[in-house]
Amino acid sequence: GTITLQVGSGSPVTINITSDNNSLNGIRDAINNAGLPITASIVGSGSEYRLVILSNATGVEGEVTLNVSGLSGGTETLSFSDIQPPQNAKLLLGVATDTSTPLSFEFSSNTVTGLLPGVTLNLLSSSSSSVTVEVKEDTSLLQEQIEKFVENYNDVVNTIDNLTFYDPDSGEKGSFLGDVNLSIIQMQLERAVTSVVSSAPEEVNSLSMLGVKLTKTGLLQIEDREALSEKLSTNSAGIKELFTKGVAKNLSQTIQGMTVYGSGTLWLKQDMYQRMIRDIDKRITSLEEIMDLKEERLWRQYTNLETYLSNMQSQSNWLAAQIAALTKQISSRS
What we know:
Number of strands: 13
Number of helices: 5
């Protein structure tokens, strides 16, 4: 015979039962291998066992429809019955009074998203009385961003320190030791992050009011993370105002003033070094040309000297031969 299964409005699937799978184990395996969002299992003990089919989809949409044709178990026809009918989660939004009626909603899952913007409800159990859900802003991410901001700012300050340091014992020094521009830049950055922001609430109108203070070495330090977390919980809007209209705005203007084309402090410094590099490259090219000419002149002098020495050597050999011949004639006459 056959078993036809359908989950919700999905396509029905027919499973053929033959002598190869005509047992509870065989039918269970055939259902599980049919590719449907259902799970078949065998329950029971002793001499009584039952085949149980569970839908993997929740709510009314996951209802399982089952039709059996031509199957018999011994003297009885194999049949199925519902253990638990499918149902949706029902939720009432609001309180019923003489003058108000709550809104009714149904969901196929106990995890409800979309009913309230930005809120996920996990329905754990039914309730005959109203349940109040308190929604609070999650400030942990905002605190992480503030901590990251402090870390990044300190990285910039440490970079400036590494470029301008001097060790009197070893004589080591940074590449930009004595460069007054970096000192000016650091002071501008400090002023940008420590200024009071008038548009923010007075209790959070500066980083120091959040417990973020400047140390003697010019680094930012969060003195009390719990206090910062508490202020984020009670006045997150004011802290956002502090950063968006104050700290971030000040830093953006400061950095733009440093890097703007044609007049920024760092742009002028970079332009100066680029011009120095171009001048040095020109000097190198000029010196290379001079050295090439000098090398050519020296090679000519060397070649001329070699030729002169060769001629002198020939003359020396000729004179030596003449002297030897003259000496021989004198010896033979005597």
